[in-house]
Design brief:
Blueprint: E1 3-7, H1 12-28, E2 31-38, H2 47-76, E3 81-86, H3 89-99, E4 103-110, H4 118-125, E5 134-138, H5 143-149
Helix pairs in contact: 1-5
Domain UspA: 5-117
Protein name: Universal stress protein
InterPro entries: UspA (IPR006016)
Amino acid sequence: MRIYLTVIDDTPEAEIALRFAARRAVKTGGGVEILALIPPQEFIAFGGVQATIEDDQRRHAEGLVQRAAGTLLEESGLRPSLTVRSGDGPKVIRELIAANPQIAALVLGAAASGVPGELVAHFAADAGSLTVPLMIVPGGLDREAIDRLS
């Protein structure tokens, strides 16, 4: 099965990428994997404080993927795979792609204006080393345009 990997966060462009990935998956008989990244924390001398921060971030990330999965199921009928990982985003994404040969594309959303986003900038600059196509969805697209293009 063809899997479209997308990364979810609190940005509008992440939702746009998710919609595009879902529409492509429906049209190609594939699936979607939603990844929420938890950035690595700087060391804090008081372990309890660091553990609390990490726990809050994990719960937030899990909430993001659950909401995204609910939206995806409601709008397209797809049940996505959900992944929450801690670590450096590009490294985690490359590891997921390497571990799952069914991942057929990485779908990221670019911000509607200004800097496109950290992951978009990273992978666009290094797209030639990816083992799957990189799909960058412009953040300025509305739902109708996404549906038409996907």
